[in-house]
Amino acid sequence: MILQVISPSSILIIPRRQVAPNSIYFHPQLSSSVKYSYSLPPKTNNFRQKNITCSANNPTVTTERSEDVVKEKSVSVVLLAGGKGKRMGASMPKQYLPLLGQPIALYSFYTFSRMPEVKEIVVVCDPSYQDIFEDAREKINVDLKFALPGKERQDSVYSGLQTIDLNSELVCVHDSARPLVTSSDVEKVLKDGLRVGASVLGVPAKATIKEGNSESFVVKTLDRKTLWEMQTPQVIKPELLKKGFELVNREGLEVTDDVSIVEHLKHPVYITEGSYTNIKVTTPDDLLLAERILNTASFVPA
């Protein structure tokens, strides 16, 4: 089976893996009385070896889980906070709306700041909103930098990339509108990114996905068992991301997410299974759902 990007929904096709035992799962159609829980997997030295290929016909890549450890202070986080969020219909960008009394963007900001692997956070935002993060500076123990957003997402990522520390081993790109990412999921995707070179959090698709034509007629129904919904963070080695941008800029390509840049280099991208609670807040309904998740006793964001 091969990886395939289905634009513009950022869904990849890849053999589906078993559900990770430390994932937190949430279904918006379930009643509020349902309890949600998770458990961490036991420590073990028995690792399984898997092979993956990408749509660029890259040679088989071994993805054996080794003893590789992401070093402390070796990761630069690029926090994308420059979007306008028109679908929310609010007077300010969605990432700055209050979520239980705190700006949405600060949830993941604090989660990353508490992780020992993180050296710095580069916030890509409009200067008029920098004070939100400046006011939080005294609460964090990582370097805080700022970069200007671009017209498109890839322009904002490129702006953040130009600002990171040159000695960073990994770049971790995250949408600030995803406030509920957990540190345990971030740790997993960082390790996979270090091992493979590029990794992305994702969850198996639950809805039936159909491919349509320009006239809105169904062309075919895709096999849900092979579909993944992409999330963030997306983790890439800096030198790989820079090479990808050189190619994308030279050929004038447009990409909808960060690992797509690497795919153009014919480099494999590994999908790290994440959690369904890692939602992107884009509509008022999403905001209500995020509040509901945070109010769930078993949910531990960090």
UniProtKB/TrEMBL annotation:
Pathway: Isoprenoid biosynthesis; isopentenyl diphosphate biosynthesis via DXP pathway; isopentenyl diphosphate from 1-deoxy-D-xylulose 5-phosphate: step 2/6. PROSITE patterns: ISPD. GO terms for biological process: isopentenyl diphosphate biosynthetic process, methylerythritol 4-phosphate pathway. It comes from the Eukaryota. Keywords: Isoprene biosynthesis, Nucleotidyltransferase, Transferase. Pfam families: IspD (PF01128). Its EC number is 2.7.7.60. The keyword Nucleotidyltransferase applies. GO terms for molecular function: 2-C-methyl-D-erythritol 4-phosphate cytidylyltransferase activity. The keyword Transferase applies. Belongs to the IspD/TarI cytidylyltransferase family. IspD subfamily. This is 2-C-methyl-D-erythritol 4-phosphate cytidylyltransferase, chloroplastic. It comes from Artemisia annua (Sweet wormwood).
